[in-house]
Design brief:
Elements (H helix, E strand, L loop, with lengths): L4 H7 L3 H4 L3 H19 L11 H19 L1 H5 L3 E4 L2 E4 L12 H4 L20
Antiparallel strand pairs: 1-2
């Protein structure tokens, strides 16, 4: 894992995240790592130490998954809920959105290689 449950607990201001068991936070972190890998096209295993931007993106995404996974009202479809001092409203079937971490990670996005190119010349008859 690129971040630890203790780092996530110290980062988060939400009681729901701070009180979540470390085993569940580990799973939330794994979900966040998969999501970040999908965005950048690689894992950050070649970086030592982990860049601060990537670490912040992972913390934000892991916190999101911890909140989502610990709040059953989202699954049940309630329209409003309060988590600690934070409240949110879901209207018309919308859900809480994932944090936009692209700007933190854009420097680390792996360019996809172009697979062969074809040139075609056409002539009218």
């Amino acid at each position: 894992m690129l971040i630890t449950p203790l780092e996530l607990i110290s980062y988060s201001a939400f009681a729901a995240v701070k009180e979540r068991p470390e085993t569940l936070l580990t799973q939330d972190i794994l979900e966040a790592e998969v999501e970040i890998k999908k965005i950048v096209g690689h894992d950050f295993s070649e970086y030592n130490p982990l860049p601060e931007e990537a670490k912040l993106a992972l913390l934000k995404m892991a916190q999101f998954f911890a909140l989502i996974n610990s709040d059953e009202s989202i699954v049940k479809g309630y329209t409003s809920e309060k988590i600690g001092d934070y409240s949110y409203t879901l209207s018309n079937g919308e859900s809480i959105r994932k944090p936009d971490v692209y700007n933190l990670l854009k420097e680390y996005v792996q360019k996809q290689p172009v697979q062969g190119s074809v040139k075609m010349r056409l002539r009218s008859i």
